[in-house]
Fold this protein.
Amino acid sequence: MLKNFFILLFAIFITTNLNAQFNNTQLQFGIGISEPYNDLKGTYYTNEALGSFQALTINPDFITNNYGGKTGVHFFGKGKFNFDKYSIIRGVIGGSFNTFNTFESSKSGNIGVQVININNQFDTVLTSINYDYTFNNFGVGLGLELAPTSFTNFISPYFGAMLSFNFMNGELARTENRFDSVKFKFSDFRIGVNFDGGIEAKINPNFGLALGIKYDLGNLLLKNTNSSIADAAEWGRTNGSLNDAQGRFYSTLYGPVLTSVRREVATKEKKINWGTVYLGVNIYFDNTKPKTQKPRK
């Protein structure tokens, strides 16, 4: 399906009267599909044995080794400003929003709950459980872009790189017995870079299309793990940490039985990276029109 989409888009580019002389400031808006890589990719849930039953639990690798990311959606906007009269070198500023696990449905099963029975002894009973999870990033970037053939009358390729300022956050929701919901939210600020490339074509003086790919290295700088008992990753907390540096932290998220006892776990240093395929619309602003001079007396 995706292959047919690219073939159709290329056919539109070829059969349209294209003009790739990008001599003007332009805006670019678009949407894409993002795929997580490295330690962003993973599965946040798993099944564990609880006696003769199976309990749906949070994967011990979640946050400690990966962030349970699946395929998501990408939205973006850019402003491009020419540095030369041929529009080969451009300055770029932009913003983007990625939300992962977009196509991942919530997961339902059973989990154990500790109770004190009539004999005043601890016992474990099953209760229904439902989990839902998403990981998001809002990024702001500043960088450069090269379009080596933008002065010709052909489709113009472009490629560039940006320094990105990323505001990452995740939300894991747990619903017990279909009624009682509780969430664990975590967020942090990271600095990274992204690399962008594609082709763009001018359909008329004001509008054009772009097809591109982008790869984000999301957390190159400011990695950190909060090891304090006060920063434990637990149900009900809304200000948890990414914990993406090597170290240890406390958590109540894991195990086949719901408990408030904080467990110390080890976490590795993690890379939060993702790739995106996108389709964009360009809006051109003509800054080269000659100014009308007033007639001399």
